[in-house]
Design a protein that fits this description.
The protein is an alpha+beta fold. It is built from 8 helices and 5 strands, in the order H-E-E-H-H-E-H-H-H-H-E-E-H. Helix 4 packs across helix 7. The N and C termini lie far apart (44 Å).
Length: 184
């Protein structure tokens, strides 16, 4: 873990490591807030991930490891009402395209049920948002809404492959842009 931290934080404090009760003898790499551009250009992901593989770390080959992506609620609008409108569109997209997202997530349906379940289809983004706010699944949902400052995309299986990591970050970035710039 110390070697991974040295790689990640060589030029700036980009990452910290913590334990997580859902992991079997593992650790969690947590980045500080950064843009997609920073992830792609400045974060030393290639070296970090290659080193993790060389050291025997696993990610995709486990049953509990996930790739969770947090996005600031502020990215979706200045007001809580505007933020919820955009987040409702994200939830609607996830529910409407669930089968395709399951494939892209690289998780099994069983893993999704345990770690990133769906809220359930409703025929309008606002209805899904209202339903999601009342959900009893708490943070074990595909888009976790429990954090006041961020929303967390939990649907993706973990990876130590650079191209998979970047593709996943790019997908979420594009999906957020779509939700921001479209209407219900």
């Amino acid at each position: 873990a110390k070697q991974l931290l040295e790689i990640a934080n060589r030029d700036a404090e980009n990452l910290y490591i913590k334990t997580d009760g859902s992991l079997d003898e593992g650790l969690e790499l947590v980045t500080h807030p950064m843009s997609l551009n920073y992830h792609c250009r400045d974060m030393p992901w290639k070296e970090l991930l290659r080193s993790a593989v060389r050291m025997g770390y696993r990610s995709h080959q486990t049953n509990t490891c996930g790739l969770h992506i947090h996005v600031s609620r502020k990215a979706f609008g200045e007001t809580e009402e505007k933020q919820e409108e955009v987040i409702g569109r994200l939830l609607y997209f996830f529910e409407k395209n669930w089968d395709e997202l399951v494939k892209f997530s690289r998780r099994t349906r069983s893993q999704l049920y345990d770690w990133a379940d769906r809220y359930g289809y409703q025929d309008h983004p606002k209805k899904i948002m209202d339903h999601a706010k009342k959900s009893c699944r708490k943070h074990y949902t595909s888009i976790n809404l429990q954090n006041k400052a961020t929303i967390e995309f939990r649907i993706f299986r973990g990876t130590l492959k650079y191209n998979t990591l970047i593709a996943t970050l790019q997908f979420i970035d594009l999906l957020c842009d779509l939700a921001i710039h479209s209407t219900d």
